[in-house]
Each structure stands twice: as C-alpha cells, then as structure tokens.
Amino acid sequence: MANEDLKLKVAKEALKYVKDGMVVGLGSGSTAALFIRELGNKIQEEDLTVFGIPTSFEAKMLAMQYEIPLVSLDEYDVDIAFDGADEVEEKTLFLIKGGGGCHTQEKIVDYNAKEFIVLVDESKLVKKLGEKFPIPVEVIPMSYRVVMKALTELGGEPVIRLGERKRGPVITDNGNMIIDVFMKNIDDPIELEKEINNIPGVVENGIFTKVDKVLVGTKKGTVSLNRNKNKHLTL
C-alpha cells in the first residue's frame, strides 16, 4: 500500500475525534492537507458547526477551499488540533516537525489545544529523534550567525535552509529564516527544546514534546499510540 493511501486512511480515522461545535487546529503538510479536505467534506455532509484555526498560509488556503469556517486564537481556545510530523519517536511520542517551515505557528496552535493528535504513516516512526531529519529552528534574520554559533556549541551541525526555485534562504510565513540543525544524539528532547529556544534570536524550534496521541497509518490498519501507555491499539 502506497504512503498516500496510508495517509488518507489515518486522515479519515482522525475525523472520528471531531464533534459538533468544536474549534479544530488545522495542521500543515501532506497528511494534514488530506485531513483538512476530509474535514471539509464531513462538515458539509453532516451539516456540522466546526471552526478551524490554521497553522500556516497553506492550511488557511486549503480550509477556505474546502469551506471550513475559520476563527483565530484571539477569539477562541482550541478544542483539538491535528497535525503531521517528520519524525515520531515511538516510545515517547516526541516529534520533529517543520520540514515545511511552519513549526512556529504549528506549535502555538498545537500546544494550546486541549488535545493534540498527530497523523502520520508508518515511515515516520523512529527509535530515536534525529535519525532521518534535522531540527528546524526559526530565527530572526539579523541573528543567524550568532544563533548558528550557539547551536554548534550545543553539539549540532547547523545549515541555513535555502529555497528551491528561489535564490537565498527560505523565508517563513512570519518573515524569518530557518536553520536546520543536524544532531546525532538527542538524548533529552525536552531539555534540548528548551535550550534551543533560550538562544537569543531563536523564535521557535521543531522539537515537539507535548503530544497526546499519534495515529499511525500502517499496511495492517490504523494504530493509536497513546502518551504514557506502552501499548498499541488497533482501531
């Protein structure tokens, strides 16, 4: 079964958690995009009152396309947030996110939700964070050199993320730059998340340690990984 099929399965599974009257955090990325589409269909078919808070310009445009009414954190709290991930540490449910450059707004919405559920296919599961992906760090442009120096002192190998089909660095929705930090041994993600964010000039980093549930699309079906529970539940 192709990864796209697994992503669609888990996106549809996530709809079971959405109830009438909810304010839903709308994540960014390929799996989150499928969820937004399916949520729009569910709202229209079942005539639900559901509001969305997008985590990126991409998520906002998709929500508008699929006729999901949008609100903001200025107005409402988030009942439940759904988002994707680049890596999920299976034992702890810690994540690396930000391959699309949206992790700052994602973390603001996801961390302030009453429940945060991550949607991935099985290829995203790892034994230890950092196996496949670097940690994205959003930085204020004037600080990039001193931030890179500090990240090196933390044991990382920082690289400025460059644009594709565009000269120069990637610029986020917030007008900042992204530094990708390669780290071979992430032994304490909770502490590292704090340490990186304490560097002057850093806006936010892509380590996510506050996750309630991960829905994983596998060839055998959708599996739920729950925080503080070392067992899998086949749905």
UniProtKB/TrEMBL annotation:
Function: Catalyzes the reversible conversion of ribose-5-phosphate to ribulose 5-phosphate.
Organism in which the protein naturally occurs: Methanocaldococcus lauensis
Superkingdom of the organism of origin: Archaea
GO cellular component, one term: cytosol
Mitochondrion found in the keyword field: no
Assembly notes: Homodimer. Homotetramer.
Entry GO MF terms: ribose-5-phosphate isomerase activity
Homology family: Belongs to the ribose 5-phosphate isomerase family.
GO annotation, biological process: D-ribose metabolic process; pentose-phosphate shunt, non-oxidative branch
Binding site for substrate: S28, G29, S30, T31, D83, G84, A85, D86, K97, G98, G99, G100, K124
Stretches assigned to coiled coil: none
Chemical reaction(s) catalysed: aldehydo-D-ribose 5-phosphate = D-ribulose 5-phosphate
Gene: rpiA
Lineage: Archaea, Methanobacteriati, Methanobacteriota, Methanomada group, Methanococci
Keyword Lyase among UniProt keywords: no
Pathway assigned to this chain's UniProt record: Carbohydrate degradation; pentose phosphate pathway; D-ribose 5-phosphate from D-ribulose 5-phosphate (non-oxidative stage): step 1/1
EC id: 5.3.1.6
Pfam family of the protein (one): Rib_5-P_isom_A
Residues forming the catalytic site: E106
Protein name: Ribose-5-phosphate isomerase A
SMART domains in alphabetical order: DeoRC (SM01134)
Top EC category: isomerase
Keyword tags: Isomerase
